[in-house]
Amino acid sequence: MPRLTLSNDQLMIYDDFLPRDAFESLLVHANKDRYATVHRGAWQKAWRVDDGIPLHGTATYYRDDASLFREEEQPRYPTHGPLDAFFEAVNEVTGQAEKIVGRRGTAWTGITASPWVYPAGTALSLHRDHYQYSGSFTYYIHRQWSFHWGGQLLVLDPRTGCGAPDLDDSPQGWPFLLDDEENAHVSEPGLATCILPKPNRLVFIERNAYHLVTRVDPNAGNRPRVALAGFFIPPGAVLG
pTM to 2 decimals? Predict the structure, then answer.
């Protein structure tokens, strides 16, 4: 049974989320999947120039109502594979996670999930998921992880930037090459919740929460950080 480890206004964390056989089948699925770099079309600026090149697997889509699938949303549930059990398990707990991801049918009508592989030397810089999504999640499917291998998820304190202009309104645009303004914005109170990438852990993240993934350390060797990550799709949203 999933075990609720943390619940606040930004995060909901479940450990032991899936039975062992279902967990293992997702790692096999990720191993068989095809991957591309995150920058395959153009540089995606959520990753800064020194974040390395993580790998992105195939996005699979879930809809409560099959009539809501867009033509391009392929592959889709049911896949008759291990992702089906994952989507079904996520759906079992979304009612408890409404304050994080929103209400089913109102805030969101679909879910997308993709394998992500972060080898040693890769990271994901500070960002939010509020542009297109009602919330996000990450589920760790590597078999083991050491604290000293890095790859921690940091979620900044909700007071971050209170009283300051929103970074999204900055005339300089995304803090890709220019990050002085961002550094000033996040320095108060300068606190974050650190979530270790523990195997079989599911993390829901509120759409307005600033978060990042710390660099996977060389100590990890050839053992990458592997996760299923995805988003809750608002009604009418067109992903691209």
Answer: 0.95
